[in-house]
Write a structure and sequence with these properties.
Blueprint (H helix, E strand, L loop, with lengths): L1 H7 L7 H19 L4 H5 L1 H8 L5 H8 L2 H19 L1 H4 L6 H5 L1
Length: 103
């Protein structure tokens, strides 16, 4: 509800994108806090809503989400998960957190 009100009250008369971005941010915050939908879905709101409301192009927003570092982290997480599920990580103690090993 606050998101709709925020979109109708002009924060800056010269730039409508400020109102729309603030509305999307309020909507995302409320969804994030209440967990109405999974957090991963909430995190993808800008990819869908920014182009829909004319805040930014889909290509620009998607470029922020799908860069090399993100794919590197996803790939490393997938390799770790597969090795744990296959039992390979238990032979080299990868499944123990690093802080426990340092103690």
């Amino acid at each position: 509800m606050l998101s709709i009100i925020l979109m109708s009250v002009p924060l800056d008369d010269r730039n409508y994108k400020i109102n729309r971005t603030a509305s999307i941010a309020v909507l995302m915050t409320s969804f994030w806090v209440t967990e109405v939908v999974p957090l991963a879905v909430t995190a993808m709101f800008p990819v869908v809503l920014f182009p829909l409301f004319g805040v930014a192009s889909g290509k620009l927003i998607a470029g922020q989400y799908y860069n090399d570092i993100v794919f590197l982290l996803i790939g490393g997480s997938l390799i770790a998960e597969v090795s744990v599920n296959a039992g390979a990580a238990q032979h080299v103690d990868v499944h123990h957190p690093i802080p426990i090993r340092t103690l």
